[in-house]
Design brief:
Elements: H1 2-22, E1 35-38, H2 41-51, E2 59-62, H3 77-85, E3 88-91, H4 99-104, E4 113-116, H5 117-121, H6 157-174, H7 179-206, E5 211-218, H8 221-226, E6 230-236, H9 246-259, E7 263-267, H10 273-282, E8 288-292, H11 300-304, H12 309-323
Parallel strand pairs: 1-2, 1-3, 3-4, 5-6, 7-8
Amino acid sequence: MKRKMMRLLIAIFMLCFVAAAVGGCGKGKKNGKLSVVVTIFPEYDWVKEILGDNPGDAEITMLLDNGADLHSYQPTADDILKVQSCDVFIYVGGESDKWVDNVMSQKSNKNMVVLNLLDVLGDKVKEEEVVEGMEAEDEDEHDEEEAEKDEHVWLSLKNASVICDAVKDALSKADKDNAELYEKNCKAYKEKLEKLDAEYEAAVKEASVKTLLFGDRFPFRYLADDYGLEYYAAFAGCSAESEASFKTIKYLSDKINELKLKHVMKIESSNGKLANSIIENSGAKDVDVLSLNSIQSISREDMKNGVSYISLMEGNLEVLKKALQ
């Protein structure tokens, strides 16, 4: 687990660097405003939806902005200061967030409400799995004693509904004056999530194909399991690998022909090179590459243009409909 250990050491160094600056001066609610810090875009959008017209004048800070990836993110000194002094902090809680434990040990706002998504979901959290044909990471990248959790919980609309209740509760605890409004907004938003979930259910039920093949990492296990889809992929969702062996490429190429698939999938940040290599190696005709959005690396420009968690999941549904034809 060399890569993750290095990231943890860097986070510890940054924590030591800012510890003196933080001291005991942080009091939360700067200038009377509720301060909310989140790590990734889905959390940001859920908070925004539940705040609604934001009567508490909350300030929301998203740490992984401008397309930063959860698996490679390291907090800056400024990020650490924001986390340690905010009123509400929301993070995923998986292997990529190991830095949080050290930061929380030095938090200056003792009344901070902290929300760990994996803790919220409890036994709904899945262990990352290596399916047949998938390229496994080197043995020294894994901790034999503890299986790694699949962090991509936000890619399940069912999980999102559960998490939104917890987000609502966290905001209500920090801002009791507006708790009733947060309850109302959360209920309305969950109805939208449930409607979209039903659309996914209907699309998969009507589909002639029930298998996805990814020439890429596969962060969509929660989504696949929600709707009973099978999948094959080059790498697990949290893998740092990008170069597949010929054995992996051949296995996936053979699956294209065996299952008569017309589409090979990739994630939005991929250049599609591996997916195209798999298609080329299969010799199959009329097979194209489709992209599903993992909804973790959202740019400021996308946010300015009104991109939302629901709009991105709606886009994924349209891609899924085509992939399952």
